[in-house]
Design goal:
It is a single chain. By secondary structure, the protein is of the alpha/beta class. 38% of the residues lie in helices and 14% in strands. It has 15 helices and 13 strands. α2 packs antiparallel against α11 and α3 packs across α11. The radius of gyration is 21 Å and the shape is globular.
Length: 399
């Protein structure tokens, strides 16, 4: 079992006086940062905030730390070092990718997108219709919000070059079968682009095992700095047109990051791996098993919250009713706008969010007006039982 007290000792936010008594339930918008990342960021700014890769010591150390972050994160995710790159955000990374596909594809070829996605993995691809690329929408079940793989099969043919979908939605939260979906796409000759932003905070995935050609997530939601992280298979990455400086065309990890890297934040990302290894050492398991420790702890806390929501006739739960098949991101629709409920919960020490969360298309598909929105209650493995009880008590009071 996860030692949640040990976990919380690694996050300074839990020792911060101004946050005492506040239960954090907006982790899907951005997580607390672990001490390991903060230490690396502080050291970089104190000792190595110079242009990296020059011949003097401070510069060499800075460059080595940036390389270390890429190497160790790639290994954690089950990929090759040069297949991992950093960018300003996942949204920006996706826009750059879309420009590369725009150049590679021809009018009449197709891309499949979903209406379950956060707009970051939908909007950039839909804009390619302006150049004659056919955009096909894989629609959710309007009753459940679920993406059914059999519906994807009817959209696939030899003209489809790319299938874009989320590992899990930031409001539906059901974990989609990435391996199955990728196998269907590959059988039709298409690549896959998976938005892992809402999944990765709940256990870093083995991207190599999932089989996705492109996998994206955000470090600031996985206990790190504000960076977008992308893995792309070498064969695809070297086929797509270079989007960076022409002289970087032979470097895979630079091809899709035209903006200069944030040296300090890239280096600090190694702290996320420090944290995973710290957890593994404390629990006596291999780092690959930390994923399961996180998921098991979250599921045990999630089910009572789901049962509570299901037991109320004034709340509509989005997504599955069982914890095993979803992330601990619980979006509910009530007879009041989500932001109003979030505002009232703040008076009871609950930090949560309300709105559409850039998931406008799926809310509309479910018959929810985006301006009404939902209340979103999202947590991660550092949440404890007392905070779940505090949340349920607060919900009783505001509802």
């Amino acid at each position: 079992m996860l030692d949640v007290d040990f976990v919380r000792s690694r996050f300074p936010a839990f020792q911060e006086p101004s946050l005492q008594g506040q239960a954090f339930f907006e982790n899907a918008g951005g997580s607390y940062t672990c001490q390991h990342v903060i230490d690396r960021l502080t050291r970089f700014y104190h000792q190595r905030k110079v242009q990296p890769y020059a011949p003097y010591a401070a510069s060499q150390l800075g460059g080595q730390e940036m390389d270390e972050a890429r190497q160790r994160l790639a290994a954690l995710l089950g990929g090759a070092t040069d297949e991992l790159s950093f960018g300003p955000s996942t949204t920006q990374n996706t826009y750059v990718l879309a420009q590369a596909f725009r150049q590679m594809m021809s009018p009449g070829e197709a891309i499949i997108v979903t209406n379950q996605d956060h707009e970051a993995n939908s909007g950039p691809w839909r804009r390619l219709a302006e150049d004659g690329i056919e955009i096909r929408e894989w629609k959710v079940d309007p009753a459940t919000g679920r993406l059914n793989p059999e519906d994807l099969e009817t959209l696939l043919d030899e003209s489809v070059r790319l299938v874009c979908f989320p590992h899990c939605s930031n409001v539906i939260a059901e974990i989609n079968p990435v391996q199955e979906i990728t196998a269907l796409a590959h059988a039709a000759g298409a690549f896959t682009c998976v938005d892992g932003v809402s999944y990765a905070p709940h256990g870093f995935p083995d991207v190599g095992a999932l089989g996705a050609d492109i996998y994206l997530f955000s470090a600031y939601k996985t206990f790190g700095p504000h960076q977008g992280i992308m893995t792309i298979r070498r064969s695809l990455g070297m086929t797509l047109p270079n989007q960076a400086h022409y002289f970087n065309a032979d470097s895979l990890y630079k091809r899709f990051t035209p903006a200069g890297p944030d040296h300090a934040q890239v280096a600090a990302c190694a702290g996320m791996v420090d944290y995973v290894e710290d957890l593994a050492g404390h629990h006596g398991v291999d780092p690959s098993k930390v994923h399961d420790l996180m998921r098991d702890h979250e599921s045990a806390l999630l089910q009572p919250l789901l049962d509570y929501v299901k037991g109320r006739n004034d709340l509509r739960l989005l997504g599955p009713e069982e914890a095993a098949g979803r992330a601990p991101t619980v979006a509910v629709c009530a007879n009041r706008p989500g932001i109003e409920l979030a505002t009232e919960l703040a008076n009871h020490g609950i930090m949560a969010g309300g709105g559409d969360f850039y998931a406008v298309r799926v809310l509309e598909a479910l018959g929810i007006k985006p301006e009404h929105g939902v209340l979103r209650l999202s947590f991660t493995h550092y949440t404890n039982q007392d905070e779940i009880e505090q949340l349920i008590k607060a919900l009783d009071q505001v509802l």
